[in-house]
Please model this.
Amino acid sequence: MILSQFDEHSVFSQLDAFGHQKVVYCSDPGTGLKAIIAIHDTTLGPALGGTRMQPYKSEYEALHDVLRLSRSMTYKSAITGLNLGGGKAVIIGDSRLHKSEALMRRFGRFIENLNGSFITAEDVGTNPRDMEYIRMETKYVTGIPESIGGSGDPSPVTARGVFMGIKACLKEHFGNDSLAGKSIAVQGIGHVGENLVGLLRNENAKVYISDIDEERLGQVAQKYGAIAVANNSLFDLDIDIYSPCALGATVNTETINRLKCSIIAGSANNQLADEVVHGNMLLEKGIMYAPDYLINAGGLINCYSEIAGFNKKKTLQMAENIYDATRRVLQKSKLENIPTNEAANKIAEKRIEDIRKIKASY
Ligand code: NAD
Model:
C-alpha cells in the first residue's frame, strides 16, 4: 500500500491529485519568509505564475491554493498558445504587516536557485515594488515597472484580449463580429473594465456599466458615453452581452436564471460559481460563455512579451490571437455539445500532450 492512501491531506497525496512536477518549501526565519513554490508542468516551457501573499489559516490551505492556482496556469498558457508552463507561489503572511525588502529578496534567491524553471510576477498581495526587490536577486521575474525596462500595467492588453474574445463570440453567434448596435453590460470599470468600455464605444456598442465606486462610475459614463446602472439591476437588462470585469462567481444559478443575454465574456477570474454545474446550465440555456482564463490571458501575454523582449505593438497583436483561439473553443463546444470551459480544457490538454510527444523524440 502506498503512503498517500493513508492521509488525503498529506503533501504527497495532494501532489498526486494535482499532478505536479515539483513543490518547493522556502523558509527563512531571519526574514520571516514562509513560502511555497509549485511547478505544475513545464512541457511547454518554464512555469510562469504570480506570487500571492496572504495570511493563510494553515499550511494545508496555502498548499492547496498554490497547487490549484499553478495547475490553472498550465491550462492558461497552453490554450493561449504560449510556450510557458504553469506555476505559482504563495507567501504566507499579511502583506501589510509582514512584507519587507529583505523578505522579498530572500524569496528572490529561492527563485534564482530554480535556474529558470519558475518565473514569477505580481499577484494578490504583491506589487511592482516587490517585483523590483525580487529582480535584485534573480532575473526570473516579470511584470516589473516600465521605468526599469519592464512591460508595466497589463490592463490595456487584457482589455484587448477580452475585446477580441467578445468579437469571436459575436462571430460565432450572429455570423459577424460587428459591435455596432449591440448592447453590453460591463460589471466593474476598474483597470480592465475602463479600457474595455473605451474599445466597445469606439465600435459604437451600447454600453451599460456598473461599479460599487459610484464616483468613478459617473466619471467613466461621462467620459465614454456609457449608461451607468445600479449593480443589482445589471442581470435584468435586455442586452446581448454580459461582461464580468470585477469579481468571480457572478455567473451562478440565480444570475443565469435572470440573465437575458446570449453571450457572457469578461475579464474576471473564476466567473462560474461552479465550473461543472454552471458550465452545463449555460450550455442548456444556449448562452455562449467565453472561458475566462482564455480571454483574460492578456496579462500573461504581457509577461511573456517582457521575457521575450517584444514591444507593445507585438504584444497587442498577440492578444488579438485570442479571437481565433476563442472561436476554436466555441466551435468544439458546439460540435461535441459540451460546455465551452470543458472544450477549452480539452484543447489545452491536447496541446500539452502533442508537444510532450515531439519533445520525447530528441
Ligand atoms: P480593478 O481592481 O482595477 O477593478 C475592479 C473594479 O471592480 C473596481 O472598479 C471595483 O470598484 C469594482 N468592483 C468591485 N466589487 C464590485 C462589485 N461587487 N460590483 C461591481 N463592481 C465591483 O481590477 P482589474 O485589474 O480591472 O481586474 C478586473 C478583473 O479582471 C479581476 O477579477 C481580475 O482578477 C481580472 N483580471 C485582470 C487582469 C489585469 O490585467 N488587470 C488580468 C487577468 C484577470
